[in-house]
Amino acid sequence: MNIYFQGTNQRTFGTFPLTASELRDAMRIAAEVGYRSFDTAQMYENEQETGDALAELGLSRDEICVTTKVHPDSFSEVAFLSSVEESLRKLRLDYVDVLLLHWPPIGGDIAPSLKLLEQAHSHGLTRNIGVSNYTAQMMRDATKIIDTPLVTNQVEFHPLLNQDTLLAASSETRIPLSSYCSVARGEVFKNPVFAEIGEGYGKTAGQVVLRWILQKGVSINTMSTKRANIQANFDVMDFTLSGIDMDRIDALTHTGYRIVTEDLVPWAPEWD
């Protein structure tokens, strides 16, 4: 797995949908807890406030890992690089650590936006590049379109959705996966199995879910505004789920509960 998604950066603090003082307070707590990896996006419309919050943290640049994502509306030669430069101004950074394409383009031709992403890397606007919401075939195609390695494909990943096809593509292409909607926006808590498993480890249901994701080889992206939850989401590195418990959770992936569909987001591709 790429260095930016190892260790502390295996746990990223997501900023969506936070804004204003709620965002700054949450990021301050996250930093106090130990988070050093932060995720935003042009689409979230909070890059300016994320940049302000980062500046207030007082951490050195080499201590933090910042990810942002390019809006599909900027997937043109005219708009792409200028949009990234605007993101950097808002974030108060000379570069981001990871720059992602937020969605595949409508129409399915991924080559132009990938090449523009590679240009942003060659211009020094980002240290690493990646994608989000790519299908398995898109992952395979991407490795043939550009030479710069993709450090992640950020996708919906939780125990109520079978993503074995993406996991196999990740192994094949060596593009690591990272998760969003890691607890399925709370849907996982309707199933008692997570709390039952957690009792055996002295952990919460949410921590069991996040640990399962990590043990699948996927880095986690979580958000909360409550200190206790932020702390709990971070404290998932000191236990290991048994093979039996992993299998119990694996069985739930056939639930097929997908949050992000074309009805919700127009750029959503035909999922694997």
Outline of the structure:
38% of the residues lie in helices and 15% in strands. The chain is of the alpha/beta class.
Find the CATH superfamily. NADP-dependent oxidoreductase domain
Shape: globular
Strand content: 5-15%
Number of strands: 8
Major pleated sheet: 8 strands, parallel
Distance between the termini: 23 Å
What count of domains describes the coordinates? Answer: 1
How much helical structure, as a percent, in the residues?
Answer: 25-40%
Q: What strand order characterises the main sheet?
A: 7-6-5-4-3-2-1-8
Radius of gyration: 18 Å
CATH fold description: TIM Barrel
Structural class comes to alpha/beta
Protein model, in words:
Helix 2 (47-57) packs parallel to helix 3 (80-91) and helix 5 (136-145) packs parallel to helix 6 (164-173). The protein has helices spanning 20-33, 47-57, 80-91, 111-122, 136-145, 164-173, 193-199, 205-215, 227-234, 243-250; strands at residues 11-14, 37-39, 65-70, 96-101, 126-132, 150-156, 177-180, 220-222. The chain has a single domain (3-186, 219-235), classed as TIM Barrel. It is an alpha/beta fold. It contains ten helices and eight strands. Strand 6, helix 6 (164-173) and strand 7 (177-180) form a beta-alpha-beta unit. The two termini are 23 Å apart. It is globular and about 55 Å long.
